[in-house]
């Protein structure tokens, strides 16, 4: 009988100990900061993470470099064609179908504003798809933590991923908008300078981003903005077929060794 009582006591003590350990575990978990695998959804880390010796996702990737090159060259070509069409119009020369289309190609959209729209749109797309907190004036409650609402002293408390992408995009768009204010890239040198300036920003922004997933999003944002802008503007500009106009009489009578006259585009439009 005594043995049975001892077994009951032993079982009760073990059960009580298990309860106490469970409660301590729960209390300790609740009191400490939660472990959360998705660092991109959390606010900015206390210190910027450094890069490791091995970087799997370069910023800018070769695809981004090519898309930016195509973007600035398409913009340069458009500004040159518009300038030539304006010069012909001002000199009362006959305008071709392509000339007329070039003159109206910026009536609704331009290369700089399209790029801003698509880059910001991509950032907000990631914000929505990945449930990031971005410039949210209200308190945002997640499963294990919450982000406070906006206040004048601290401003917005955004997710780390949002802050990195938005900061990069804002810097790039500042450079692009400045180029728009001076009439866009009109020469090869100006186009190259714009391309280099954007790539320099990407190089600077990626220096403290160790998260490979986020580095991919950085590339994706700029690549999409450049590709989509070129695609959109192509639908508003003359096609290759529109551009291919030959004056047969002039072509027949032109001497074989006649040099092509060079035009200073900026002087022509001014």
Unreliable stretches covering 5 or more consecutive residues: 17-35
Order of helices and strands: HHHHEEHHHHHH
How much helical structure, as a percent, in the residues? 55-70%
Number of strands: 2
Describe the biggest sheet? 2 strands, antiparallel
Coarse shape: elongated
The side-by-side strand order for the widest beta sheet comes to 1-2
Treating each run of at least 4 consecutive H or I residues as one helix, how many helices?
A: 10
Average residue pLDDT: 78
Number of structural domains: 1
Strand content: under 5%
* Broad structural category: mainly alpha
From the N-terminal CA to the C-terminal CA, the straight-line distance is 111 Å
What gyration radius follows from the Cα positions, in whole Å? Answer: 30 Å
Brief write-up:
The chain is an all-alpha fold and 270 residues long. Helices cover 60% and strands 1% of the residues.
Task: Characterise this structure.
The chain has one domain (62-269). The chain is 60% helix and 1% strand. The protein is mostly helical. A two-stranded antiparallel sheet has the order 1-2. Strand 1 and strand 2 form a beta hairpin. The chain has ten helices and two strands; from the N terminus they run H-H-H-H-E-E-H-H-H-H-H-H.
């Amino acid at each position: 009988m005594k043995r049975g009582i001892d077994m009951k006591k032993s079982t009760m003590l073990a059960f009580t100990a298990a309860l106490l350990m469970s409660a301590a575990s729960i209390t300790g978990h609740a009191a400490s900061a939660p472990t959360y695998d998705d660092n991109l959804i959390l606010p900015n880390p206390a210190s910027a993470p450094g890069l490791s010796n091995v970087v799997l996702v370069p910023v800018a990737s070769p695809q981004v470099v090519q898309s930016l090159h195509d973007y600035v060259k398409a913009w340069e070509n458009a500004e040159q064609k518009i300038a030539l069409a304006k010069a012909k119009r001002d000199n009362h020369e006959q305008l071709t179908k392509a000339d007329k289309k070039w003159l109206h190609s910026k009536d609704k959209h331009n290369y700089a504003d399209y790029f801003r729209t698509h880059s910001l749109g991509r950032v907000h797309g990631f914000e929505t798809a990945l449930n990031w907190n971005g410039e949210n004036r209200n308190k945002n409650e997640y499963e294990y933590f919450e982000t406070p609402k906006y206040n004048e002293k601290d401003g917005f408390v955004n997710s780390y991923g949002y802050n990195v992408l938005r900061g990069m995009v804002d810097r790039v768009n500042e450079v692009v908008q400045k180029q728009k204010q001076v009439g866009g890239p009109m020469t090869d040198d100006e186009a190259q300078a714009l391309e280099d300036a954007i790539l320099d920003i990407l190089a600077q922004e990626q220096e403290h981003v160790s998260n490979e997933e986020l580095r991919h999003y950085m590339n994706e944002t700029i690549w999409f903005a450049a590709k989509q802008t070129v695609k959109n503007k192509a639908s508003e500009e003359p096609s290759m077929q529109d551009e291919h106009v030959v004056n047969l009489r002039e072509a027949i009578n032109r001497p074989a060794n006649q040099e092509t006259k060079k035009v200073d585009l900026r002087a022509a439009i001014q």
